[in-house]
Design a protein that fits this description.
Chain A is mostly beta strands and 118 residues long. Chain A contains no helices and eleven strands. In chain A, the strands form two sheets. In chain A, strands 2, 4, 5, 6, 9, 10 and 11 form a seven-stranded mixed β-sheet that branches. Chain A has a four-stranded antiparallel β-sheet with strand order 1-3-8-7, with no helix packed on it. In chain A, a hairpin with a 2-residue loop joins strand 5 (43-50) and strand 6. Chain A is globular and about 40 Å long. Chain B is an all-beta fold and 110 residues long. Helices cover 0% and strands 57% of the residues of chain B. In chain B, strands 2, 4, 5, 9, 10 and 11 form a six-stranded mixed β-sheet that branches. In chain B, a hairpin with a 4-residue loop joins strand 7 (62-67) and strand 8. The chains are: A mainly beta (118), B mainly beta (110). At the A-B interface, strand 5 and strand 10 of A face strand 4, strand 5, strand 9 and strand 10 of B.
């Protein structure tokens, strides 16, 4: 059972370009979470998705950032018109469907995508 | 709003020492608490998951405790080794997805 797969591992973009980050959850997991880690900072929640639904996007910047988790294929985090401040490590985590009344599910993280904006 | 604090921010110990990392959280209404390890430039590896109804979990040389009412958790590492050098992150899950502390950067000196 492969773990959470993120690609690319490293991504370099010039200011103004678009960045697309991909995340394939663990087999059997239908919940995906995206986090951003700035240098010397903790991980900050961005967005929580189920298949074809955004459940919680309270951590997403209002502009330029979007996320999707289609019925088929990986979850995508898209950053349009990137700026230097977007340079960070972006991590994806997945968890299985919680059983009825049980929320104590373990989250598994991918290796991250390190975005550098030049 | 849940906030997670980890103390100390950095710790350096000689090989063989037992050590304790601390984590505190402001909202005790949590579902679980997870400890993770992060090596430089790498992803997160889950070490221990403590559910809200549990008091502690053990895995090898690691022992994590949870005092939900006081909003505290500790990660105890026995007989530390240079390979334990990494950043250790504490995260809590409640009505919002995992909220992380900034981590404790551990160096174990041979």
């Amino acid at each position: 059972n492969a773990g959470v797969m993120q690609n690319p591992r490293h991504l370099v973009r010039r200011r103004g370009q678009e960045a697309r980050l991909r995340c394939s959850p663990m087999k059997g997991h239908s919940h995906v979470y995206w986090y951003r880690q700035l240098p010397e900072e903790g991980l900050k929640f961005m967005v929580y998705l189920q298949k074809e639904n955004i459940i919680d996007e309270s951590g997403m910047p209002k502009e330029r950032f979007s996320a999707e988790f289609p019925k088929e294929g990986p979850s995508i985090l898209r950053i349009q018109q990137v700026v230097r401040g977007d340079s960070a490590a972006y991590f994806c985590a997945s968890s299985p469907i919680p059983s009825a009344g049980l929320m104590n599910t373990e989250a598994f993280f991918g290796q991250g995508t390190r975005l550098t904006v030049v | 709003k849940q906030e997670v604090t980890q103390i100390p921010a950095a710790l350096s110990v000689p090989e063989g020492e037992n050590l304790v990392l601390n984590c505190s959280f402001t909202d005790s209404a949590i579902y679980n608490l997870q400890w993770f390890r992060q090596d430089p430039g790498k992803g997160l590896t889950s070490l221990l998951l403590i559910q809200s109804s549990q008091r502690e979990q053990t895995s090898g040389r690691l022992n994590a405790s949870l005092d939900k009412s006081s909003g505290r958790s500790t990660l105890y590492i026995a007989a530390s080794q240079p390979g334990d050098s990494a950043t250790y992150l504490c995260a809590v899950s409640g009505n919002t997805p995992l909220v992380f502390g900034k981590g404790t950067r551990l160096s174990v000196i041979a």
